[in-house]
Every structure is written in C-alpha cells, then in structure tokens.
Amino acid sequence: MKKAVRLLKEEAEPIARLSGNDRERTVGWVYLWNSSELSVLWLDEQVPAGSIEPPLHPEVLAEAKSSTPVKVIEYLEALSSGGEHTQISRP
C-alpha cells in the first residue's frame, strides 16, 4: 500500500505581484511553495489588491487546490480572471 507523501514547505518563489487599484503600488506578492501551495505576502494590509500581474495560470491554481485554503484560491482566481475587484473579499 502506498502512503501519501506530503512535502514540507521549505522553499518558495514569488510568481505574481498584487497591486492596488491604481496598478502602481505593490500591496503584496503571491508565492508558490515547493509543495504547490500558494500564499500571499501582504506589504500593506490596508490597501486592497486591484490586480495581479501576471494572472495565475489555471494549471497552477488547480495544482495548488490540494494544499491551499479555499478562500485563498477563490481570491486569486477572481483576481486572475480580471473580475470586478471592488467585490473581491480578501481571504
């Protein structure tokens, strides 16, 4: 019987920039961990993200679903699809 192997989060790299509604101010970074988990490093928690650059590929989001909280996936999907940013609630 095979055992499930869970990778520890040991290393991450920034894969996308979150900017404010003005698209000039960086408010956070999206990191991809070696475990496929996505996480957000907020630089300014008071300013909502208005856009993500580059948008995350659906394959990256799909792979991250097994190890990333649902609210984070939904938030990043909404930003990546160019949804109405004022209605996206931060996780």
Automatic annotation (TrEMBL):
Protein name (record): Uncharacterized protein
Species whose genome carries this gene: Sulfitobacter delicatus
